[in-house]
User: Fold this.
Amino acid sequence: MSDALVMHELVERLTGWLCRLMPPGVRRDRLIAVLTEQFGVLESPVTSADCKEIERCAWTVSRHLALSFEPGGTAQLDTESPGWPEPEPEVVRARAAGVSQVRWLADSTCLISVDELDDISLAQPYLDAAFALAQGSARILLDLRANGGGDPATVAHIAGRLLGETPTQLSEVVYTDRRRQWWSPALPSGTTLRQPVAVLVGPGTFSSGEALAYHLQTRGRVTVIGETTPGAADHITPIRLAPTVLAYLPEAYVVDSTTGTNWEGVGVVPDVTSPPDTVIETAIAALR
Assistant:
């Protein structure tokens, strides 16, 4: 038992990484303070329930922070940020890059469900095929209710198919040592979609899934239908805090180029609220 990771050790490692990763400012200081105050002196061994409690506490400041407890884990602690692993092409292809559904409804409405935002190098053929099938539709429903996020480049590609051929700046992502702008790509004439579009969102729309809905909504291109999303606007990176604890920690925040802010903590608020069982009918009525 003496070798078991205890709570104050975990929190010290966690807050140390937050100091390294997060851009300086009020949010970083507040997150470190609330975690230290709540858990910084506890001597009890870390459990899965403790990790969940740390998450809930952190979510008051950063909705995207997550801890995965792995009993019996033996992996080495990270001393440098390793970044995200390379995507596995066979895994992405096996799920059609998250394009789980393209369906024409009886009134020429095309329903496209995108449940992942996989690396654009692998996802683009599936997304382009889905949008090609939607070309002749009267209206489009883009269902993001099961979209847990992913590649910002894929967000930009989908946004471009709806915003137009000319590149549009979507956001700037602020890190401790740099800033990165995200733009929709230049596209060939005739490849973008001009129909009315509704984006369906809910509690399962998260991170970059929220980004896509937010960027399109703030530019007035779509009508957002459904339920308010969780509000996770930070970019995160995986960090091994202990053999038994893998963390996903914020390393940057998003600034939308239209609003100058983001959806952190407040979520993407629908233009029209609807429960899940009637959201498709509500969306079609709204677009008509």
About this structure: The radius of gyration is 20 Å.
